[in-house]
Amino acid sequence: MKRDAGVRKLILLRHGQTEWNANDRMQGQIDTDLTELGRRQAKEAARELVSHNAIAIISSDLKRAYDTAVALADHTTLDVVRDPRLRETHLGDWEGLTHLEVDAGYPGARLEWRMNADYTPPNGESKLEVGARSLPVVQELFAERQDWPGGTIILVAHGGLIAALTAALLDLPPQSWPALGGLANTSWVQLSSHGPSIDRPGWRLDVWNAAAKVAPDVL
């Protein structure tokens, strides 16, 4: 028997570049498109990840994530399943603003948002709320996919959501959530579940920000 026969592998892939990424503009749940560079990044990530022999690909329903997921699915026999619970953090009044505009209009708020998982942008949602809405996606897969042990499931989503979901899976205390920094476009996170049950999943963080250099928009 393979050493990892009973291990559930989970890969969380961030979408490719958008114009808004390139211009340091806060996207949140605004539905932006990939740039040509973003589409190339998606194809490159797909070539790297196809060797993991995924049994399912599930994506945020926002175009930048879904199009990235389709580039991956094109190398497999799988269809992409959309799930709106994998959408990026709702940034409320900050959506559409550049980083500089947020800093000018809300001095010190963006730093507080980075450092405090409970901080909520005006009319938006906190990182803790993002983790709470996305965690059931994985819990449901754990319960329903009897073929997952020994296999890999890939979720294609967004940097903020991936960090929040990872922290929630690892059951980190809120004060430790900022330890998980930003992700570059089409970089990924890998976790593995070694536990005996959905109540004791035993998640481990294997890889963070893989196969990508840290991009300026995540510093």
UniProtKB/TrEMBL annotation:
Xref: SUPFAM superfamilies: Phosphoglycerate mutase-like (SSF53254)
Cross-referenced Gene3D superfamilies: Phosphoglycerate mutase-like (3.40.50.1240)
Molecular function terms, GO-annotated: phosphatase activity
Cellular component terms per the entry's GO annotation: cytoplasm
Domain of life: Bacteria
InterPro entries: His_Pase_superF_clade-1, His_PPase_superfam, PG/BPGM_mutase_AS, PGM_Phosphatase
Active site (catalytic residues): 15 (tele-phosphohistidine intermediate), 88 (proton donor/acceptor)
Binding site for substrate: 14-21, 64
Record protein name field: Histidine phosphatase family protein
Organism: Nocardia donostiensis
